[in-house]
Amino acid sequence: MFSTSAFSRLLAQARRVVSRPAALGATRVLLLALAAAAAMPATAQTKVKIGLIGTNESQLPIVVAIDQGLFKAENIDVETVNFRGGGVAVQALVGGSVDLAAFATDHVLRLSNRGVQARYLVGIDRYITHILVVPSNKDYKSLADLRGGKIVVSAPGSYSDNVLRWTIKELGLDPDKDFTIIGTGGGAAGRAGLDSGQVDAIMSTTPDFINDELESPGKYRILYDWRKIPHSGQAVVAKKDWIDDHPEAARGIARAVLKAEQIIQTDPAAVQRGVRTLFPERSDAFVKQFAAVVPGILSPDGRISEPGFLKMVEILRSVEPDLEPIDQADVDLTNTLLER
Description:
With about 350 residues, this protein is of the alpha/beta class. It folds into three domains: about 5-40, no CATH class; about 45-125 and about 230-335, Periplasmic binding protein-like II (D-Maltodextrin-Binding Protein, domain 2, 3-Layer(aba) Sandwich), CATH 3.40.190; about 130-225, Periplasmic binding protein-like II (D-Maltodextrin-Binding Protein, domain 2, 3-Layer(aba) Sandwich), CATH 3.40.190.10. It has 16 helices and ten strands. It has helices spanning about 5-20, 25-40, 60-65, 70-75, 85-95, 105-115, 160-170, 185-195, 205-215, 240-245, 245-265, 270-280, 285-295, 305-320, 330, 335; strands at about 45-55, 75-85, 100-105, 120-125, 130-135, 150-155, 180-185, 200-205, 220-225, 235-240. The strands form two sheets. Strands 2-1-3-10-4 form a five-stranded mixed sheet, with helices on both faces. The longest helix has 20 residues, at about 245-265. The chain is globular. Mean pLDDT is about 90; it is low at about 1-5.
């Protein structure tokens, strides 16, 4: 099919030819060609299913990319599929029910150890995303003060679980003997446990804590904050064979998400629309507060830093020591796909 600009040039040429009577025969041929070109269907967009997990800032670049038409600009028709956790999204990716997924980068290390070749297309986070939250009326001074207590994580083996266990080991304690770690899905269930006194602390995220502060000011406080520790966090991931079969779509996905990350750094209104899409039931005050902190949380350039990647490997192998490490260069396509 002709591009819009090429079609316009041909049409202008036809009009010039029409002005010369001697060339009417050539004119008819050219006009017939133009009519045939106009009737041809547009090049079909590549249909891509992307798995998303939960509702946190890591999904925001994809939401913004959809809102801004960035995938369409890359000739990609995106369908999002929501999952309740990373483990389910990984199963969907391996099974082929989604083409790509945005989930914790440590899943790629696990997949590699199972013989499944997966790759990072574009990075999303740049720090660990979790905080440890306790009731404000409890006199805990440090994580070690929770020894013997109960701590809620989203699920066993999850990102939050791994970060907590790694930190406990760094303190010289045993996460299984010195603490009771409970996977409840986090969120409302974790806060209900805090309120009833059934648990002592919960692994939380920035959006959940902002919402808690707005709904119950001063009721909870942060005991431990990991959010300035470099970590590859979450990324858009695809299997290698899909990338090999769809190289232009892979590059287009990476470019669209990168452009969305750059918009997040510069356009507060676009960020607020994305936050509203992710959290339709939350207050305007929440949308404004969360949108204001998001640029400092998310990657501005789509790359996965070497310190962030190494920290991810360190944390995961501290709780799953039998996993063989992987080289970042073998699984990270961000620099290649995002080259200008």
